Amino acid sequence: MNLTKNRLAALLLALVLTLSLGAALAETAEEAPVSDHFFAGMKLTNLDGTPFDTSVFLGKPILLNIWATWCPPCIGEMPHLDELAKEYDDKINIIGLHSEGLTVTEAGEVMPDAEKNELAMALQADLGLTFPLVNPDITLLVLMNDPQYGVNVSVLPTTWLIDSEGYIRDIITAAKDKEGWAQVIDEFLLKMEAEEDGKNEG
Fold first, then answer.
1. Deepest of 52, 58, 78, 180, by most Cβ within 10 A of its Cβ?
2. Model-level pTM?
3. pLDDT digits over 39-75, tens only?
4. Of the CATH numbers 3.40.190.170, 3.40.50.1110, 3.30.1360.70, 3.40.30.10, which one belongs to the domain with range 2-201?
């Protein structure tokens, strides 16, 4: 019975996400007149349901770490990311994306998953995390689940490295320690700097 319900829920989620994509993308574009930055136009929320200020996506690269409470490697690397978020604050924004923050009801309504968000907030408190942990909106949920866009999340943790213009430049599907993430960040920032220098020279 549980397996059947899970399969039905998965099918329902896929259907709802597929049907919602066009409207979600259009709505995002219409409601973000201040910028054509894709991620800055999203309606993300904090774990407690309050709006998240997506203007942080503007002007700096983003490390978007996608995680879940049931994922030990995700939890293991969070304190490292939290430390790096402070150390690299002036160079890159590090954000944790709670992959299970939304759920789809039997009626097809997409809404916050209260139980899983409570677990996520408890984890946040237990680890003393201060870097932002957010829930996706419908647009981001579609990108995470639909393989046709080439950035779907099939394993956790998955991390998107996003440039200052809102483009996903690299995808990492492994957990890392502090030293490993520092190396990734340094290399990414150097790459972005070299590209910017090339534009200026051109």
1. 78
2. 0.82
3. 888 899 999 999 999 999 998 999 999 999 999 999 9
4. 3.40.30.10
